[in-house]
Specification:
single chain, alpha/beta, Rossmann fold, five-stranded parallel sheet, elongated, hydroxypyruvate reductase [NAD(P)H] activity
Length: about 350
């Protein structure tokens, strides 16, 4: 008698794995609770490439990054470990599984957003996260440009008595108060508004040039801010010009020989926008001929290549320079990890632009 053996085929129930995120940056140090929540929802793949070529190689089929679902860059890192700029070539190598990129950048310089959009990849930046910190740095630079505090401090640190006691003679003829002076803001976005609020606290009057005029509520908040439909109209009356605009074809070298010539003699210049918004050769000449009496620069034309005459010549001692990462570093407790992990968590299932 034959024995019939019934076999049962069991199909193992599989669950979708957690989405994988390529993490480019130093370990999270501040937003630890958000980071713990993030790791519960996503598989973290550390970014270990040391060049653009290595990165592209790792994105190829079978490579360690070939199945990533997103990229997280929560802070600026050293160049040799930071994520390369996402230009068209690099974006073309991203796997089809990659749907979102969240980066610390306030703008999107060097990012091919058109190619990302064509491939259906969401790009989220840190817009708004650094408004307060950047505005704080701007106020510091405004005060330094008027009061020459950076110059005076450098003399003190030299610890040479003869030069230290000459500070009064060097500074008094040029230093001035910002009170009752006109601050001309180029770009009245979130950062421009925060700078203006702080400038009002030290008694400055606000004028601005921007793509769109703010409503009466914002202008009222800023003490009756005056809108100028043309840049040269604002430059003609401003005692200090602050650039708070992104770098675009329209704002490239927006301050140049022609626009410096339209300014008051003894104007102060502050740039916390993008370095390429100023023609640095023209700025150096404007300082030399006395058009510009002081400058505060948080960004530079070709970072990290400094314009020699602006930063090393004794003639330009009245240029106050802040570290390019100064604004961001001051805000890491609020920025590092928290905003950017939230962006990707919100994007799981249905991407949203939240930057």
């Amino acid at each position: 008698m034959a024995t019939v053996v019934r076999t049962t085929t069991t199909t193992a129930m599989t669950t979708n794995p957690k989405p994988s995120i390529l993490y480019a940056g130093h370990p999270i140090r501040y937003a630890t609770s958000q980071w713990e929540k993030f790791q519960q929802n996503f598989t973290i793949i550390p970014y270990t490439s040391r060049s653009k070529a290595e990165f592209i190689h790792a994105l190829q089929p079978g490579g360690p990054y070939s199945t990533i679902n997103g990229i997280l860059r929560p802070a600026i890192s050293e160049p040799h470990i930071d994520l390369p700029l996402l230009d068209k070539e690099l974006v073309s190598h991203l796997p089809t599984s990659c749907k979102i990129i969240a980066s610390v950048n306030h703008g999107y310089d060097g990012i091919d957003t058109e190619e990302l959009g064509r491939r259906g990849i969401w790009y989220c930046n840190g817009a708004g996260a650094a408004n307060d910190s950047t505005a704080d740095i701007a106020l510091f630079l405004i005060l330094a440009a008027f009061r020459y505090t950076t110059f005076s401090e450098s003399r003190l640190r030299e610890m040479r008595a003869a030069r230290y006691f000459s500070v009064e003679g060097d500074v008094v003829p040029y230093a001035n108060t910002p009170r009752n002076r006109i601050l001309g803001v180029v770009g009245m976005g979130g950062i421009g508004v925060e700078i203006s609020v702080r400038a009002r606290a030290v008694g400055m009057q606000i004028h601005y040039f921007s793509r769109t005029r703010k409503g009466p509520d914002v202008e009222g908040l800023l003490g009756g801010a005056v809108y100028h439909p043309t840049l040269k109209g604002m430059l003609a009356v401003a005692d200090c010009v602050v650039l708070a605009c992104p770098h675009t074809p329209e704002t490239h070298h927006i301050l140049n020989r022609e626009t410096f010539a339209a300014m008051k003699k003894g104007v102060r210049i502050v740039n916390i926008g993008r370095g390429k918004c100023i023609d640095e050769d023209a700025l150096a000449d404007a300082i030399e001929d006395g058009t510009v009496a002081g400058a505060g620069l948080d960004v530079y034309h070709d970072e990290w290549v400094y314009h020699f005459w602006l930063y090393f010549s004794p003639l330009f001692s009245f240029v106050a320079a802040a570290a390019a990462a100064g604004a961001g570093a001051a805000s890491m407790t609020s920025m590092r990890g928290a905003r950017f992990t939230d962006q990707i968590i919100q994007a799981r299932g249905q991407p949203q632009i939240v930057g």
